[in-house]
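Subject: AcrB/AcrD/AcrF family protein

B.,
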Amino acid sequence: MNDEKRPQPPARTHWRLWFWAFFAATAAYMLWYKWGAITWFALSDTDDNMRFVQVKSWLAGQGWYDLRNHRMDPPDGISIHWSRIVDLPIAGLLLILQPILGGPQAARWACAIAPMLAFGASLYGMMLAARRLIDRWAFFLAFAVMVCAQTSMLMWMPLRIDHHGWQLATLIWAVTGIADPKKVRGGITTGIATAISLSIGLELLPYLATIGALSLLWWVLDASERDRIRAYGAALAGGAAVGYAVFGSFDNAAPLCDALTPVYLSTLLEAGGLMVLLGSLRIEGRTSRAVLMAAAAIVLGGAFATTWPQCLGRPEHISPELDKLWFSHIKEAKPLYEHGWRVWFPTIALSGVGLVGAFVTWRREQGTAKEMPWLVVTLLSLFSTALLLWQTRAGPASQAMGVIGATALGQPLMVWTLGYTSDRKGALGQIEASLIHILGTVAAFLLVSGSFAAMIVRSVPEHRTAYRKSVDQANRRCPTLPALKPIAALPPATIFTFVDLGPRLIAVTHHDAIAGPYHRAGNAILDVQHAFRADNPEVAHDVMKRHGASLLLLCPGLSESTVYQSENPKGFYVQLKNGKVPGWLAPMPLPANSPFKLWKLVG
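Prediction pasted inline below.
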């Protein structure tokens, strides 16, 4: 009987049905959990609002390759370093739902459903990776641990339409390809996942470069891996070329360092070509393969350094002043240890457990076919955990990698607790076995999933000062649709407001804004920073005139405003907050309960 006709084991036949059940149940919970936010279209993150504006502008006729946001600092707009890839599911859902639900409801549900599609892709890849790396039944525990990865799960929640959820999916699939015992298929999977991820954005470039380097090292150690790296290289180069040709914007045709531009396209083409070349050679000597790998690395690194020397530093290329006044205040760009323990403890818990689990499993698998895939997972876990000491934004990827190691650590432990039987006879022995079954299993899961950290955080009361409560209230109220409704009722205008409020303003009203929190808009950001910090109100007057702004909008207490107040208690923002208004501004009427203050330029 051939393989096609042989009955398959239940786990292999039905695990995909389990995937659909898990996905449907989790999606239903996500919708229930976010129901209020969906109802009020609470795109709370600046990038989510900007993504929605980008999709709306495209559907309204903006060119496919024109990714400038023309409603930010009009008329030229600001350059956005994203691609259209993540726009596609949102736009598709909008087009499907709009004739059925109407515009506002279609927008709500398109933005609610789109991130869960990325979760589905991530969950399928994670369950498949667990089957390949750990055990055919390990997908049960992998799912359970994954939904406890709070930092990662936030990237897939309804309304989280930014690109990070899709990038996590590509990272998981890159590892799933490494774990594939079928070398050609695995290489193609990893290469395509890498190309898609880098076409979306460069945030995961360090992880993906590590996967590429370790794939070559695997070939050095095992000559039979040449088929994998040849397929990987071809898929990487071809995928990057398609990604750039189809999804690269006009602005990204310049040799910039923060997106898939000619800089990284040429590098990926070279890297893919070198992999295809090395994979096409039949070299039996390990030393010879090591020399060739080193030579390829030198050629690739040397070509990058000599051709694109401007990209050897930080990719954003922001000025020291912009870094000091703006970038250094972004919470996710700060190291994890600069946050309170309520943030760093739950984040590091799963990452740390996963790192331990990956290392232990790698040591156990040494000498087997799974040794190199586990080395990849171990080093990615170590690398992503270390990155938390650089920027907190590494948390979602760190936890996603932690899920794999945590599942490997927890699988035998959970099997033991669930299958434990006491040798003692009588009632006491049965009670002991029952306690091990129930309490032991629960305790083991809380440990390996990192959930113990979240439980500890929730159990410790948090003291919040009156000042902190006022800031939280401003952060909650000002971006809401009811608060912005009186602003939206005014005739269209360019509004001078906080940098972080700009994307929300243009997403849910017909007004334009001067600046948003995007590094390519550095000059506009600095104009806002200078205006609100300056002692002299004429700085703001000049900024409004140069940018064509006719309204000035404040949300006193918003997080961004606390920076202005703390760094210059006598600055323009504090003056306005305290009622010291220059003569060239006239107050505009707002409802008595409005969290905003609004003025019109009259001079």
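The first helix runs from residue 10 to 33.

T.
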